[in-house]
Amino acid sequence: MSIPVIIDCDPGHDDAIALLLAVASPELEVLGVTTVAGNTTLDKTTRNALTVLELAGRPDIPVAAGAAAPLARELVIAEYIHGESGLDGPVLPEPSGSPVHQSAPSFMAELIRSSQKPVTLIPTGPLTNIAQLLRDHPDVIERVRAITFMGGAAEIGNITPSAEFNIYVDPEAADEVVNCGLPVTMIGLEVTHQALFGDREADLLRGRNQSSQFVAELLDFFVARHPRTYATPGAPVHDVVAVAHVIDPTLVTTERCGVKIDTGDGLGRGRTVVDRWHVTDWDENLDVGFGLDRDAFARLLFERLETLP
Ligand code: BDR
Ligand code: CA
Predict the structure, then answer these.
(1) What ranges do the domains of the chain cover?
(2) Whole-model pTM?
(3) Which candidate in 226, 238, 245, 278 is catalytic?
(4) Ligand 1 in contact with 14 (CB < 6 A)?
(5) 13 belongs to the catalytic site
(6) Exposed (0-12), middle (13-18) or buried (19+): which is 100, by Cβ within 10 Å?
(7) Is 3-306 a CATH 3.30.70.1520 domain?
(8) Counting Cβ atoms within 10 Å, is residue 121 exposed (0-12), middle (13-18) or buried (19+)?
(9) pLDDT by residue (tens digit) across 29-82?
């Protein structure tokens, strides 16, 4: 019995690997992929999503482009991590397919309405499209099983000391999503910084099938960018953890917490304020990831990549 999912992403090296894991996993049925501006501009994230699906042998999965900018702010992109194309490193063929002629929120709504089973949303970029879906199509909310997003941090951020990139880019959207009343899981930096991949992982994947080779080349670039910025031993493959958690919920340990988003413009912009020690009377609105079985996670990804072209 597979779980129908929609992946809303901004590829992005780790988004691309997350897409590969999703399409390679029989536990999931990827109904569609939607794109948002984040790591790079919308035209590039959309092209990258199409290219990745074609490379994985799944050009049949529809792609819909969504928001080109956050709900209320100027777009901030992450070329310093993902390069000019958003997926620098491997040679990227132009996709032969195109996105559907519908914007991401209405396409998601249509997929959710026509799904036999409730749909799980896996956002791995800024939450703009998801907030727009909740605003414009409230009738589908009861048909959403859960939202598992990559974003946020209970402690320190990565784009500022306070904020993780996806939430920093569109804090207003994040605020709407965390307060939407659905079961929402936050896969933040506490978890994803345990999912570090380095040259060793790239070398293990290199020379295997096309998809593993592609991931190796993505990692070559992505890993080289990270120690320079964050002094971590390897690169956190953030978004892959969100998909892995939906495939196998035993990989990540979560705690139920009250979480609020700082939508101000000051030092705390985009901070996910997590009440881990329950010192407030806030509603406990999120399951927040803290622990990761890193080896089981890596095994899952490597095994699944083997099943792709
Ligand atoms: C998040 O920001 C992006 O650069 C990554 O794709 C990931 O979704 C990590 O902060
Ligand atoms: Ca992303």
Answers:
(1) 3-306
(2) 0.98
(3) 238
(4) yes
(5) no
(6) middle
(7) no
(8) buried
(9) 999 999 999 999 999 999 999 999 999 999 999 999 999 999 999 999 999 899
